[in-house]
Amino acid sequence: MSADDGSTLLHARWLGEALGAPLPDEPRATCGDCAMRRDPAADIQFSSTKCCTFFPELPAFAVGRLLLDEDPGLAEGRARVLARIAEGQQVTPLGIGRPVSYLAVYGGSETFGVAHALRCPYFVEEGGRCSVWRHREGVCATWFCKHERGALGFHFWTAARRLLKHVEKMLSRELALELGIDEGALDALASTPQTLDRRWDPELFAAIWGPWSGREGDYYQACGRAVDALSWSDIRDRLGGLEEHLGSLRRSFAPLAAAPRIPELVRIRVLRRAGGDPTRVLLDSYSPFDPVEVPEAVADALHDIDGRPVGVVLDRGAAAGVDRALLERLWEFGLIEDASE
Questions:
Q1: Domain range for residue 288?
Q2: Which pTM does this prediction carry?
Q3: CA-CA distance, 337 to 32, in Å (whole number)?
Q4: Same domain for 125 and 237?
Q5: What pLDDT score was predicted for residue 1?
Q6: Which of 71, 77, 119, 252 is 20 to 30 A from 322, comparing alpha carbons?
C-alpha cells in the first residue's frame, strides 16, 4: 500500500502523514498475479482464492466512501455491499462485520489461502480480484505474503495494522455518536457475542440503529463524507490515546528508512529447508509464506556461519557465492542473528 497506488487511499494518506515519509513498497507481494501460486517448489501454495480466505470488517466510513465512489470498476463491490445492507446480517452503525458463525469454522493457518468455502464475500471469482479494493479495511490493506526487507517489513506493517484497526474502531464509534446513535446501543453491540441480524431480531436491529433505522445506506454515506477531508492531525485531535500505537509504528519504520546492517559476529538462527528443486533451495525465514531462495552451493556453505566474524564468513563462503548482500538479506529475513549477544 502506498499513497498513490490506487489502493486504500485514506489509510495510505494517514500513515504517510503520521510518519512524515513515503510508505515502503512491497513489490514482491503481487496480488494480481498471486506470488503464492507461482512457485511449485514451495512448501506452501495458495488456491485460486489466494489470501482472500478472510472475512473483512468494513468500518462505517469505508462502506460510505465505497457507496459514494462512482468509479465503474467498483460497481460490483457497491452492489455486494448494498446486498449485505439489505440482508442486515452484522450490519451495524460501526460498519459491516462478519457473522459470529464464520469464526467458528475459520481455522487460521489450516484454512488460510486454501479453503474456498471461506473466501471473502467481496472476492470476485472471475479474475480473482477484490471488488472493494480501494476501500478495503485495515487488515487487508496492510497484509503482505512477502516483504521486500523480510522481518523488518513484517514488523512495520503489523504495527501499521494495529494502528489502523484501532483508528477504524474508535473513529467509527465517534461518528456514530455524532450522527445520533445511542451510546447504550453501541455498548450493547460491544458486549454481545451474537450476530446482529435484521431477519432474526428486527426489533433489536431497529433499536440499535435508532433514527437511522431503514436508512442504513444513507448513514454510511454520511460517515464517508465526514472523513473525506480528515488529516492525520485531525484524527489525533479527535481520538487521542494513539501515542503507544504511533510509537510502535515509528520504531518499526526506523530500520526500513536506514541502510541494511549486520552485526560483526554472526551465527545461524535457523537453517531449515522450505522447499526447492535440483537447482535451488528455499530456506525457512521469519514467515512460512516468504522463504529465502539460494543456490544449493550457498545453502551448503551457510553451515560455516557458526559464531564467526562476518569477514571470515565472507572469505570462507566467497567461492560458493556468499557475499555481504546475501548476509544482509539473511539477517533481515531472520536466518542469522547476532552472535555477540
A1: 265-338
A2: 0.93
A3: 34
A4: yes
A5: 55
A6: 252
Give the angle subtended at the CA of 311 by the CAs of 257 and 149, to the nearest 5°. Answer: 25
In a domain, 259, yes or no: no
Task: Let me know: does 119 contact 46? Beta carbons within 8 Å.
Answer: no
Tell me: the pLDDT tens digits for 74-132? 999 999 999 999 999 999 999 999 988 887 777 666 788 888 889 999 999 998 999 99
User: From edge to edge, which strands make up the β-sheet containing 58-59?
Assistant: 58-59, 95-96, 91-92
Q: 242 and 272, same structural domain?
A: no
Cβ atoms of 332 and 149 within 8 Å: the answer is yes
User: What amino acid is encoded at 16 in this protein?
Assistant: G
Ranges 3-7, 190-194, 320-324, most confident? 320-324
| Cα–Cα distance for residue pair 252/335, rounded to 1 Å | 19
284 neighbors 274 (Cβ within 8 angstroms) = yes
Q: Could you read off the pLDDT of 136-180 as tens digits, one per residue? A: 999 999 999 999 999 999 999 999 999 999 999 999 999 999 999
Please answer whether residues 172 and 59 qualify as being in contact, where contact means their C-beta atoms are separated by less than 8 angstroms: yes
Strand ranges in the chain using DSSP code E only, listed in sequence order: 58-59, 91-92, 95-96, 123-124, 129-130, 265-268, 273-277, 280-283, 292-295, 306-309, 336-338
CB neighbours (10 Å) of residue 196? 22
**Which among 253, 283, 305 is the end of a domain?**
253
Residues 7-50: tens digit of each pLDDT: 458 999 999 999 999 999 999 999 989 999 988 889 999 999 99
Q: Which of 299, 27, 276, 255 is nearest to 148 (CA)?
A: 27
Residues 220 and 277 in one domain: no
Separation between Cα atoms, residue 277 and residue 291, nearest integer Å: 14
Burial of 17 (0-12, 13-18, 19+ CB in 10 A): middle
Q: Are residues 290 and 152 in the same domain?
A: no
